[in-house]
Design brief:
By secondary structure, the chain is of the alpha+beta class. It has 2 helices and 5 strands. The radius of gyration is 19 Å and the shape is elongated.
């Protein structure tokens, strides 16, 4: 078992561990509830931590976590219906409602 990373909060730690498990990597979140004693122990030790159970999966888990933390920047797109510009994550135009063209 090896510590992969600390997360800023329990929600993010759980998301990371769930994503790793979905990829076939056994991962667990530890230090779930230590935030209440931050200050009595060093703050970085009170953060929830994601651990990989099998050492053989550690490098793959590290790469997957890196991808989660730094998603690729996709280009904006322009609606073919009205010409409105949109960030990459939108699938439909907020101006005219047209679906994004492939």
């Amino acid at each position: 078992m090896r510590r992969l990373a600390s997360a800023p909060n329990l929600l993010i730690a759980t998301l990371w561990a769930d994503t790793l498990r979905a990829a076939g990597i056994e991962a667990r979140v530890f230090s779930r509830y230590l935030s209440s004693i931050a200050g009595e122990i060093p703050p970085h030790e009170a953060e929830p931590a994601v651990w990989v159970l099998d050492e053989a999966d550690f490098e793959r888990a590290r790469r997957l976590l890196h991808e989660l933390r730094s998603p690729p920047r996709l280009p904006e797109w322009i609606c073919s219906g009205c010409g409105e510009r949109h960030p990459a994550q939108f699938a439909a135009c907020w101006n005219c409602g047209a679906a994004r063209s492939p």
